[in-house]
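W.,

You were right to be curious about this one. When I first looked at the sequence I had no strong expectations either way, so I just let the prediction run and decided to look at it fresh. Below is the sequence, 475 residues in total, followed by the output.
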Amino acid sequence: MDEFDKERIKEIIENKLSINYIPYNVEKDGVRTLLYYAHPRMDKNLTLVFLRDNPFYSESGGQVSDEGYIELPDNRRLEVLKSEKDYVIVDGDQGDIPIILPVIARIDYPRRRSIQRNHSATHLVHEALRRVLGPHVRQMGSYLDDKILRFDFPHYHKVTPQEIREIEDIVNAKVNEEIRVEAETMPIGQAEKIPNIKKYFGDKYGDIVRVIKMDPAYSVEFCGGTHVNNTSDIGLFKIVKEESVSSGIRRIFARTGEGILRYMDERLLDIEKLINELPEKYSNNFKSAVQEFKVNLKELDFRDTGTLSKILEYQDATIASLYDLREKYLEEKKQAEKQLVKQKINEAVELLDKLIINADSLDGLKIVTSDFKGRNMDELKEIGDSLRMKIGSGVGLLYSVDNDKVNLVAVVSDDLIKEKGLSAGKIANEVAKILGGGGGGRPHLATAGGKDVSKINIALGEFKNIVNKYLNTNK
């Protein structure tokens, strides 16, 4: 395993070469700085890079680390995967990199902007949750990246749809108020005297803390993360999921800014999937509307919260209508299938009279056997019940082959059960054994199955003998 140059790294970290961690107020053009030292990690194909000025945010307080790249004078780019305040981690073995080298550190600016929107929205939703659900709410954990924000809090009930709407309305009202987001560093004693200030759950604070204010009467929190300059930069806020984490702990997922546009795209795919599941008579009215919506979506600005809200309401209504139509279609399909099955059974029952007339006899008893191709076990049972009613005095064996297996239904008329002691369960089981299977049931009707389809004729030939055996046994 490759070893670090521990003395060199210790020298840098102990400020013999000063390192400035400056993740705030970063511009998209990047930061011109010096690369002090680069050290390869051969065990993981990574390189540690020490910069005089590190603009890459280091994961903390739920906010993920920045990504980006370091641009060298020879136009090489070192792809930054993660920041650790004192150094950044770049991808791969970068070869020989000179010490004390002028470079440009460029964060992935669009990604950072999206992360900041989600982080600032987290502060707004924290207070909104308290106002809607109660003062017991506090942050129990969070995660936020450029795509989504997640917030955990204590609450013993599922957050209702009405409560979710109220929370969203409060947050979006603060977004539309265009509140200036203020960041201030101060001694912790001074910060703790600010009315209603919030601390992040589980965090440890030093003597000097950073405080984020979004309207002193609404949200003031300890926070070392990066934020938007104005709440209007957040765009529309939307809770997309609410769930239980553990007993007494709930979790919400939400999106903001460009994440809302991605969310709309995802919901559009859901709408199209639902449309494709429906026959044309249901879906035709939606197809043209969806195509028009696709065109309009490309022209949307995530800051246009009013338009986005209306589109989300339209999507909600569309999805609800499609679910209703799907339920209606599935119910109609189910009823049609039931009607078809009933029709097939009725057609089969009509054949029973002919089968009974042409049946073999045994000591005056009717012995009926018949192949009902394509019938499943439930259908065979219904046909078997009809056979019992029609046969008078007799025994029947109905069968069908399904997926290389034989389904069997045996029936015995009531008089033979009472007077001769016959049992459909015993008869069905014995026939099934010839087919490499088994089964059983009640004396008047039983089901069984067999695996060896090739022996079906042998089993049919033995059926009469099996019935005769039980007749003689019970005399």
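Here's what jumped out at me. Residues 132 and 163 are 7 Å apart (CA to CA). And, maybe more interesting for your project: The chain is about 40% helix and 25% strand.

Coffee later to discuss?

I.
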